[in-house]
Amino acid sequence: MGILETTKRYVTDFMDGVGRNGKRDKLAGMSAGTYVRTPAPELNALYAENRIIQNVVDIPAEDMTRNWFTLRCDNDELSRNIMSKLANLNAKDAFKRMMMYERIQGDGFISLGVTQPSMFDLKQQMPDKVKSVDYLHAFSSYKVSEFIMNEDVFDIHYGKLDSLVIDRSSKHMVSKVQGNAAVHTSRLLHARTRWLEGEVQGQSLIEAMNDVFKVFDTTLWSIGQILYDYTFKVYKSKDIDGMNSRDKQELSMLMDFMFRTEALALIANDEELTKQVTNISGIDQLIDFVWDVMSASARMPKTVLKGQESGTIAGAQYDVMNYYARIAADQENVMKPLLERLIRLIMQSEEFNVDPESLEWEIKFNPLWQVDSKTDAEIRKLIAETDQIYIVNGVHTVDEVRNARFGQFGLTEENKYSGDSANLDDIARKVYKGFLDGKA
User: Is residue 228 situated within a structural domain?
Assistant: First the structure.
């Protein structure tokens, strides 16, 4: 009853058994295997249980929509009304979720809930003019059971979806519609940035970074084991040899309980108790390597991955600037066409009854980033010195410099340099050129 029994366990991680250039070795062989798409529920589970994966997915989607956009239009009242309509539709959150789903599953969608003048079927193309746009719902390819894509390379719509078969059933309540339904893509907004020729679905970013996430998970597990066994005590005694297994187990438990902390050890003269520390020399370089690979794969700086304050840049953080440049490019290439299509639909609806072609309008995304206070002060100092050179040499007058820098409202918070108004490289070149002009 009181006997302690031991059980031997052999614990492995995902790297176990990977011999050089063997069947499971993806490093030395680099042979292309059969591409098997990861099931949608598994991708959702990976996202749900790993905070780093959530950062890789969520942060770019949040950055793309965080500062939203300004609708520039000849008719200011129309512009305000449309922005108010988008706010009522909760469009900002819908686009953020669409981009999150695109990174998780490979495809992100927004369903356009509209009221039409007459009865209609979802598989029919949506007309240009509807009575009203009522709701926007974001969803992923997890809800799609079949993709029907145009694969004719000589068709203008090559590579685009013709229609989808969507599961409209509800698992937890009685739904008006049970089973699958064909939906024309004109009733959807579709975002897809990673697509392999011959595939009908986009590729999940989680799937593409699968090996990187495994290495990171193994790194975390290994560091946890190192920390757990970082220090341990070694007890030496001549009486150990004469003890049986049961006595050794009881002594080990007792010693472990008594000397787990820095407690006083009472031992004989011929006994010895020492503390051993795990050598972790060089482990920081290994961890940095894992972070570097993670950063390169996600195309996100390590500081952003680790949770740096969104939209703030300190000093010459060129990697963060490049990251925001990529986000701005995605805004223009991925989000802008979808937003323009939605705004056109809203304008042409009976609720507004405006022809989009009858006026000048454009979407202007708001600046993504601004420098921190210290860097902002340094930039202002450099520009002020340049302005002083211009004034002394008669290039500009004091009033011209004042109006150029501060406008009619003087120094306000809006004068703080942002990602659209101040590129640090350009500023440095202008300051240097101004200095040379002043010396001439």
Answer: yes
Number of domain units in the chain: 2
pLDDT digits (tens, 9 = 90+) for 156-184: 888 888 888 888 777 665 555 566 788 89
What one-letter code names the amino acid at 359?
L
d(C-alpha 246, C-alpha 257), whole Å: 17
Answer whether residue 44 is part of any domain: no
The one-character DSSP state at 202 is B
Is 311 within a domain?
no
Which tops the pLDDT comparison, 249 or 363? 363
Taking every pair of Cα atoms in the chain, the longest distance, rounded to a whole number of angstroms, is: 99
Say what angle helices 210-228 and 283-298 make with each other, to 10 degrees: 160
Can you give the C-alpha Rg of the chain in angstroms? 31
Instruction: Write down which residue in 252, 283, 314 finishes a domain.
Output: 283
In a domain, 340, yes or no: no
State which of 235, 256, 283 marks the end of a domain.
Answer: 283
Residue 283's pLDDT is what? 86
Q: Report the distance separating Cα 216 and Cα 227, nearest Å.
A: 16
- Cα 7 to Cα 4, 10, 13, 192, 361, distances in angstroms: 10, 10, 19, 51, 73
Write the CA distances from 231 to 226, 249, 262, 281, integer angstroms: 9, 20, 12, 15
- Which structural domain range is residue 401 located in? 370-439
Reported in sequence order, the residue ranges of 344-418 that DSSP labels E, i.e. its strands, are 361-365, 370-371
C-alpha 100/C-alpha 41 separation (Å) is: 15
Rounded to two decimals, the pTM is 0.74
**27-36, 50-59, 224-233, 306-315: least confident range:** 27-36
Top-confidence residue, 312 or 109 = 109
